[in-house]
Amino acid sequence: MNVEIINPDKLIYEGEASLVQLPGKDGSFEILNNHAPLISILAKGKVKILNKNKETEFFEIKGGLIEVLKNKVLILAE
User: Fold this and answer.
1) pLDDT by residue (tens digit) across 20-35?
2) Across the chain, what does the average pLDDT equal?
3) What span, in angstroms and rounded, lies between the C-alpha atoms of 54 and 17?
């Protein structure tokens, strides 16, 4: 799936991933390939991405929103 993390200033990350773990408002959750459509509020914490090379990357966010639609994950981060 394609993942983008964007904050008001710039594009932080763009690439293919097999797993995205996020800090949700009510707790941590994960997105995998072919996930159902979703829009959710994110809390302060770390976004974990398992990229196509099986490498784990972390990004610190202060909150935001996520949209998942047709294997595209868009994270609008603060």
Assistant:
1) 999 999 999 999 999 9
2) 95
3) 8
